Amino acid sequence: MTDRTQSAAFGVAATEPGARVLSGMQPTGDSLHLGSYMGALLNWVRTQEQFDAYFFIPDLHAITVPQDPAQLRQAVRRTAAQYIAGGIDPERSTLFVQSHVPEHVQLAWVLMCQTGMGEASRMTQFKDKSAKGGADSAGVGLLTYPILQAADILLYQPHGVPVGEDQKQHIELTRDLAQRFNHRFGETFRIPEPIIPEVGARILDLQEPAAKMSKSASSPNGLINLTDTDKQIAKKIKSAVTDDGTEIRFDREAKPGVSNLLTIYSVLTGKTVGDIVAEYQGKMYGHLKVDLAEIAVQHLGPVRDRTSELLDDPAELDALLAKGAAKARDVATVTLTEAYQKVGFLPGT
Ligand code: TYM
User: Rounded distance, CA 207 to CA 76, Å?
Assistant: First the structure.
């Protein structure tokens, strides 16, 4: 499935000039982390070479759980800076903030009216997040969140959406809503494909390798933030939970901890997992961790430092985001106008 969807989407690029991709990552209080960096950002950087790429910061999604306004403003700029420091070229890709393009919310309303309650409440992310605070305390925004995500995507008529594995269900809903709308009102939206990396689509928590790496990790040592110091990065890798036995081999079931470290190693070096396993034959877990700690510091240190340089000039970042939003609106407004007309709204002035 992964290989198929990935090659299907990249195949489109080869045959269709101007094929498009779009994706986004939530601006969180702390930082993007190693999971989102590997599962998404590195793949975005690859896709921008071949596609007309749109990358945005979903700040509207960030208020579906309680948030602090000052922190949100900071997190949006930091996320933009991390996109660029991680390799997104704002000259080549369109970089923007979701709330600067009101068409996202406008299309979301139309799509909400096409979505069943059961369909929305079956989304795993909604179930997880609402379970944490109790279903009654969850806001309606948490329920409609994936529909806003569908609007984010469909407005730009992308061929592919580069995401990690946990977003597959949301892309599936997006495809269902697009198909439903097209069927009901006539061909309007392109049906997008997820673009999921072959390696790194699900990076696990370093302390709890049964769970994916996420900002809601139970221990701060379970996740590496892109803002971590060299010392913190090295310490977290060296203290990662490994499995029983001593043999270094890739086995997701029996050795999830070691397999996770091998995956991270593979993504950061470009070596295959098979080659890495061969290289460490007869060595101890400790050897692998010490080397990986060094590799991770060398790779992530420059991303962190570049991020803080970019944050030193917020006016420049804001100008860049304003330029991106203007470009994004040019595309978004065409799709929204067509969708409004198809559902039967009278044209405005
Ligand atoms: P978010 O912010 O949770 O995650 C951002 C991206 O990072 C990937 N990811 C991971 N990949 C591998 N291992 C992990 N441990 C890991 N954790 C996160 C995610 O799969 C994702 O690609 N709903 C989205 C944001 C969004 C969006 C969109 C994405 C809003 N609108 C439109 C694409 C298109 C989210 O919460 O991702």
Answer: 28
